[in-house]
Design goal:
Elements lengths: L11 H4 L5 H20 L4 H8 L3 H8 L8 H10 L27
Helix pairs in contact: 2-5, 3-4
């Protein structure tokens, strides 16, 4: 059995051939930030869910990567309810090639 190494594209979801890979990637980034904020505040899932306005089961599913049923808007609202200041910046890029969305966390 020969092992082959392939260079990745930088987006594991695209490399796996999953639909909407760019959306999956930035939603995964938002979930990682959400998890980081919950940990930094020392919150339980129950307490975090209450602050977010959802139930613990839904939050738990999202934190375990089940993000298909949660919208980007909902994730952003949760981040805001946990004390995050979410800023969306649009940079115009030359050319017509679409560019992926990037997410950045700036902890205090």
């Amino acid at each position: 059995m020969e092992n082959k190494i392939h260079a990745g594209s930088g987006n594991v979801f695209a490399d796996l051939g999953l639909p909407e890979p760019d959306e999956r990637a930035y939603k995964a980034d938002l979930v990682m930030i959400l998890e980081n904020m919950i940990e930094r505040r020392g919150l339980t899932q129950v307490a975090a869910a209450r602050l977010c306005g959802t139930d613990q089961g839904t939050l738990s599913n999202v934190l375990r990567g089940r993000i298909g049923r949660v919208s980007t808007d909902r994730l952003i609202r949760w981040l805001g309810r946990l004390g995050g200041n979410v800023v969306i910046t649009v940079d115009e890029t030359p050319g017509e090639a679409p560019t992926p969305v990037s997410v950045r966390f700036c902890p205090a």
